Automatic annotation (TrEMBL):
Residue intervals of the Nitrile hydratase beta subunit-like N-terminal domain: 20-97
InterPro entries linked to this entry: CN_hydtase_beta-like_N, CN_hydtase_beta_C, Elect_transpt_acc-like_dom_sf, Nitrile_Hydratase_acc_put
A Pfam family hit: NHase_beta_N
Protein name: Nitrile hydratase beta subunit-like N-terminal domain-containing protein
Record organism: Rhodopseudomonas palustris (strain HaA2)
């Protein structure tokens, strides 16, 4: 992800947490989710107006379910939007995404602290 791509995303997506230097993140996973969306946009999976509309829809639905909308859940909505668009565009179904998420969770559980997490075939066998 280039700084230019991040800057375009920051200008194109209303509500993106940012400061004078660009997007800001509280946790590493938020930056990863952001970078994945920027990369998928660059590869033509969606336009920024399409992304912004899908993200706004996700946030609205979350608010209707009682999300406090205090900014702490923004990247949770970003990730949910990313997962939904990936499924809707036929890149990976929700079931496939869940299978990989469970496998990564299993791999993380078996990996000693401080060691790199390596996904192995057995991690998939451990998922329901």
């Amino acid at each position: 992800m280039t700084a230019d791509a991040a800057a375009v995303a920051a200008r194109s997506v209303p509500g993106l947490p940012r400061d004078d230097d660009g997007p800001v993140f509280r946790e590493p996973w938020e930056a990863h989710a952001f970078a994945l969306a920027v990369t998928l946009h660059a590869r033509g999976l969606f336009t920024w107006p399409e992304w912004a509309a899908a993200l706004a829809d996700e946030i609205t639905r979350a608010q209707q379910r009682g999300d406090p909308d205090d900014g702490h859940t923004y990247y949770q909505h970003w990730l949910a939007t990313l997962e939904r668009l990936i499924a809707d565009k036929g890149v990976a179904s929700a079931a496939t995404q869940a299978r990989y998420r469970d496998a990564w969770d299993h791999a993380a559980d078996r990996t000693p602290h401080g060691r790199p997490i390596m996904l192995q075939p057995d991690d998939f066998a451990a998922t329901p």
